Backbone:
């Protein structure tokens, strides 16, 4: 099965999550969108609700069968060797890093990264809106004795002035306490997938280097950044000692993460991975599909945005749809449909094979996620579905 076939046919057949992780906007899927999972209806749906294709279990199993049928495919053993080693090399190359390691979750990838980089300097500066600060409990302090200091509350970008304030505060206490790591998420999910301002990011990273402070990038969705920032994945990654990338968000793996950096940092982390319970006996079923999408994702995401932009133009011409792109945004396009009853309209659109999120609370605006599932239908077809559903 070639790459074009995957993109033309892979995806959300029944709006079923891969392993039952439907939350947030994905929970808006109607009963009609999950009613069928027969072979002739697989790989057909377009979704505006997810980072990636959101493969159903049967779809994933179908793709996995094709990937592992390659004559050179080899299983790993305890997440070492075989396909996992190949995937690590692929992402190290894409990120411009010397080495990479597979980890079962992004939560563990971020934790191990800041734990390793911090050394004896236990303070870690983070964004107040970041996953590491908000969505990992107090794991960094409980399990690794780290003190997370939240900056940039309500914003995506940590500014250099904030960093300088904390460097001065840490150095001037009765007991000098060093800042060991600055960890930055980019783009920031809790800020509507907004980017960190690149020029300010460079200033912060340069100052950290001057002070001997290590740098970690939570780049779970960073492969979207080139389309919107004009800066390559490697340009972003080069600012940091370690970089985490999710394998399931854009690359459609069952689970998993990559942590990349200098070989001196990455080598030996398989011991830490196992200590934290992350040394899976066989990781290839979770990760195998990601290798198929890794090298083509940036090109395909750019094409998905071409489809989204043309769709928006066609719907604007209808006169009943409005669109806006959030400032500094990446994968989100906000659609406004005045006068529509949101739930009923979303249901009618779902019946035509297109899944939409709920309208934002108290509004007639829909936060559409742009992903490569849009390549399954032409802008003309999608526009007909959206307009036709208005008729009720």
Residues:
């Amino acid at each position: 099965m070639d790459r074009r076939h995957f993109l033309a046919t892979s995806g959300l057949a029944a709006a079923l999550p891969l392993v039952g992780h439907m939350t947030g906007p994905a929970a808006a899927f109607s009963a009609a969108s999950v009613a069928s999972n027969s072979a002739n209806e697989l790989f057909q749906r377009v979704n505006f609700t997810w980072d990636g294709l959101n493969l159903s279990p049967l779809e994933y199993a179908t793709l996995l069968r094709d990937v592992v049928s390659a004559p050179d495919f080899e299983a790993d053993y305890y997440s070492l060797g075989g396909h996992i080693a190949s995937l690590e090399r692929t992402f190290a190359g894409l990120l411009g890093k010397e080495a990479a390691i597979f980890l079962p979750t992004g939560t563990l990838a971020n934790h191990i990264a800041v734990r390793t980089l911090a050394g004896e300097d236990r303070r870690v500066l983070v964004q107040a809106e970041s996953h590491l600060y908000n969505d990992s409990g107090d794991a960094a302090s409980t399990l690794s004795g780290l003190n997370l200091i939240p900056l940039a509350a309500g914003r995506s970008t940590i500014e250099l002035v904030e960093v300088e304030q904390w460097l001065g505060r840490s150095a001037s206490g009765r007991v000098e306490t060093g800042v060991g790591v600055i960890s930055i998420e980019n783009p920031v999910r809790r800020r509507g997938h907004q980017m960190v301002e690149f020029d300010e990011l460079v200033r912060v990273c340069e100052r950290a280097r001057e002070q001997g402070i290590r740098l970690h990038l939570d780049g779970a969705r960073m492969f979207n950044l080139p389309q919107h920032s004009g800066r390559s994945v490697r340009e972003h990654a080069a600012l940091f000692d370690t970089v985490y990338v999710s394998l399931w968000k854009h690359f459609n793996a069952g689970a998993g993460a990559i942590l990349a950096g200098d070989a001196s940092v990455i080598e030996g982390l398989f011991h830490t991975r196992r200590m934290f319970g992350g040394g899976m006996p066989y990781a290839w079923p979770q990760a195998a599909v990601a290798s198929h999408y890794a090298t083509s994702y940036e090109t395909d995401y750019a094409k998905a945005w071409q489809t989204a932009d043309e769709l928006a133009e066609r719907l604007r011409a209808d006169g009943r749809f409005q669109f806006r792109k959030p400032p500094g945004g990446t994968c989100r396009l906000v659609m406004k449909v005045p006068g529509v009853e949101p739930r009923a309209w979303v249901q009618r659109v779902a019946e035509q094979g297109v899944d939409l999120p709920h309208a934002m609370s108290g509004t007639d605006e829909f936060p559409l996620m742009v992903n490569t599932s849009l390549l399954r239908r032409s802008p003309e077809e999608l526009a007909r579905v959206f307009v036709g559903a208005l008729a009720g």
Observations:
- Residues 297-318 form the longest helix (22 residues).
- The domain at 82-281 is CATH 3.40.640.10 (Aspartate Aminotransferase; domain 2).
